[in-house]
Structures are given as structure tokens and as C-alpha cells.
């Protein structure tokens, strides 16, 4: 029996499937060292809620530890209140005074600043030309007139 030269060669291995590249992960925002990510409304809300919860827990602990009654006198008013209630009322009164004072100052400053009546320039428009100052006397105190010396 004669063997053909093709039969003498070892069998070719089956073609291996091409390797599948690993999936590329979604691009994450990269931040250079020292730079911060911009704030979002969600992150601001999250920080606010966590801060409020921490303050609430501290307030509950404060009230629980200062529940014994104390005598409180203010002007002609006298009463007996839990210490925590008296201290919280004093803090709330101080905060109210600070808010009223700050509000009055803001109103005062807003009235002092003149309002611009001109409409804003459209985007991309050239800025308005700057006028040179009017000629006139130099700013500052007026020079004193020369005094005559009495002759001797």
C-alpha cells in the first residue's frame, strides 16, 4: 500500500480562535493632583444632609444630658426650665439678633449701590470705549496760598 506524501505529514492542528481583547472600562474622569472635581447639586445635598444629621445627633445628646431644671430670670420674667431648653433659647435669640443685624446691613448696602439701568451688551460685542478723565484741577487738597513775610 503506497502512502501519499500528504498522509506522511502530521495532521495540522485546528485553527485557534482569535483572542478577544478584554473589554475597555468606561473612561473615568481623571483629576490632576491638587485639582478638585467640580461640585454638583447631589454632592452639595449629600454633604448638607450628613452635616444636618450629625448636628441633630449632637443636639439630642445635649438635651438628654442637660434635662435637669434650672431657675431662669430675665428682666421681670422668672421661670423654671430644663437647662437644655434655656441654653437653646439663648442661642436661638442670639442667632435671631445676628440675622436681623446682617439683613439690615445688606439692605443698607444695596440701597447705597447705584443700579445700572443700561442693558447688558450682547455676547461678543466690543466693550464700550473708556473716556479719558476730564481736564481740571488735580485731585487732593487745594494748595495753601503763599504767605507774605513781614519785612524787617
Notes on the protein architecture:
- This protein is mainly α and 152 residues long.
- The protein has a domain of 73 residues.
- Helix content is 39%, strand content 8%.
- It has three helices and two strands, in the order ααββα.
- It has a two-stranded antiparallel ribbon.
- The model has no long low-confidence stretch (mean pLDDT 78).
Which value, in Å, is the CA radius of gyration?
41 Å
Specify the biggest β-sheet.
Answer: 2 strands, antiparallel
Amount of beta strand: 5-15%
Number of helices: 3
Strand order of the largest sheet: 1-2
What multimeric state do the chains show?
single chain
Uncertain stretches: none
Q: What coarse outline follows from CA principal-axis ratios?
A: flat
Q: In angstroms, what separates the terminal alpha carbons?
A: 156 Å
Question: Which H/E pattern describes the elements?
Answer: HHEEH
Structural class: mainly alpha
Report helical residue fraction: 25-40%
Average pLDDT reading: 78
Number of strands: 2
Detail the topology: elements first, then pairings:
Layout: H1 5-8, H2 41-65, E1 69-74, E2 77-82, H3 83-112
Antiparallel strand pairs: 1-2
Amino acid at each position: 500500500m503506497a502512502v501519499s506524501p500528504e498522509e506522511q505529514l502530521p495532521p495540522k492542528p485546528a485553527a485557534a480562535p482569535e483572542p478577544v481583547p478584554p473589554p475597555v472600562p468606561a473612561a473615568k474622569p481623571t483629576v490632576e493632583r491638587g485639582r478638585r472635581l467640580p461640585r454638583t447639586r447631589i454632592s452639595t445635598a449629600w454633604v448638607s444632609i450628613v452635616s444636618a444629621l450629625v448636628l441633630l445627633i449632637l443636639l439630642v445628646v445635649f438635651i438628654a444630658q442637660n434635662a435637669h431644671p434650672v431657675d431662669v430670670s430675665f428682666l421681670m420674667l422668672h421661670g423654671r426650665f430644663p437647662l437644655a431648653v434655656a441654653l437653646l433659647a439663648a442661642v436661638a435669640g442670639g442667632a435671631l439678633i445676628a440675622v436681623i443685624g446682617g439683613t439690615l446691613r445688606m439692605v443698607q448696602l444695596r440701597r447705597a449701590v447705584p443700579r445700572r439701568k443700561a442693558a447688558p451688551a450682547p455676547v461678543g460685542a466690543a466693550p464700550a470705549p473708556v473716556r479719558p478723565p476730564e481736564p481740571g484741577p488735580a485731585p487732593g487738597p487745594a494748595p495753601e496760598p503763599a504767605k507774605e513775610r513781614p519785612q524787617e
